[in-house]
Specification:
The structure is a single chain. By secondary structure, the protein is α+β, with helices and mostly antiparallel strands. The chain has two domains: 58 residues, no CATH class; 232 residues, no CATH class. The chain has eight helices and 17 strands. The strands form four sheets. Strands 7-10-9-6-8 form a five-stranded mixed sheet. A five-stranded mixed β-barrel has the order 12-13-14-16-15. Strand 1 and strand 2 form a beta hairpin. The chain is globular.
């Protein structure tokens, strides 16, 4: 996109060309970058500065309407559509879905580099205690659950060839395709389907998946799967700012090194317009002026990020 509409409350709407927008002061860009929209379909847009590797500054959007002339789907965008379709079929055909946080993702990374990233993440990965996800009325205990029944019978959980007509069908999916599905506007976030975050805890999908714009702190800091797109990171890349709202921040200082290695983040421009999903808790800052969404137990396996140009 070479142009974007900027809307600031109390001011007249203004259309910027990418050439004029990048000439603004850094303070002006930071103030306006979360107010950008596609001039054709009105989808939420982002601004990405020129990068060190020679990529020009540009506007972009992950929320174009399919018939928008500004929407030029790349091979990766077409793959997102296929992923969204796969998840849609799982919603229609399954009795429940289990999230496999260890499921491999498609990456544009050499095998050697991928191995090094995996080893680095393993060293930093904390031990996860199943009891961390309890104390939430939207979560049901495993008593009588599909997974518990399957385990008690000693039967496979997700093998359609072994299922009888009376056995529930449990699908399995990783974060990458779930994120693509949500970004493509699927019904996942509104579904009544049971979603298992492990063998013990299950949630209704509509209670589990929360867009950043709808994030609300709760007294018990019960976790959710928060998702959306990133507007930008701060200069030190210690905080991520979602594009869908202005009062939410995601601290990443404690996992910054591992996160940058895993998703090949070289500088803050790589994060602009990226899609992200993470299992975390939402709470107020001390002054109750900003909502903080923190990754659960610093476990990077429970976060997935896809850069805008991937």
């Amino acid at each position: 996109m070479l142009d974007a509409v900027c809307r600031v409350e109390g001011q007249a709407e203004k259309t910027y060309s990418v050439f004029n927008f990048q000439r603004l002061s850094e303070q002006e860009i930071e103030a306006l970058r979360q107010q950008l929209y596609c001039p054709v379909c009105d989808g939420k847009a982002y601004f990405r500065k020129a990068s060190r590797d020679g990529k020009a500054a540009c506007f972009g959007s992950r929320y174009h309407q399919p018939d928008c002339p500004e929407f030029n789907p790349s091979a990766s965008r077409k793959q997102e559509e296929q992923d969204a379709l796969e998840v849609k079929l799982q919603l229609l055909e399954s009795d429940a879905l289990k999230i496999d946080f260890s499921m491999p993702t498609r990456r544009k990374t050499s095998p050697t580099k991928a191995k090094a990233q995996t080893e680095a993440e393993t060293k930093l990965k904390p031990e996860i205690k199943p009891t961390d996800a309890e104390k939430d009325s939207s979560v049901e205990s495993p008593k009588g659950s599909y997974l518990a029944q399957a385990e008690a019978k000693g039967e496979p959980k997700d093998d359609s060839s072994a299922e009888s007509p009376d056995e529930p069908k449990i699908a399995t999916q990783g974060l990458q395709k779930l994120l693509h599905s949500l970004l493509r506007g699927s019904d996942l976030a509104d579904s009544d389907l049971w979603i298992y975050t492990d063998d013990k805890y299950r949630w209704r999908a509509k209670n589990l998946f929360v867009n950043f714009a709808d994030a609300e702190p709760n007294e018990r800091h019960a976790p959710r799967m928060y998702w959306g797109t990133i507007s930008h990171a701060d200069k030190a890349m210690l905080w991520l700012n979602p594009a869908d709202c202005k009062d939410v921040g995601i601290p990443i200082e404690e996992v910054k090194e591992a996160l940058c290695k895993r998703f090949d983040i070289q500088d803050r421009e790589d994060l602009e317009g990226a899609g992200i999903i993470l299992f975390g808790k939402c709470f107020w800052n001390r002054d109750k002026t900003r909502k903080i969404i923190k990754l659960w137990n610093k476990d990077l396996s429970r976060l997935h990020l896809v850069k805008a140009d991937d």
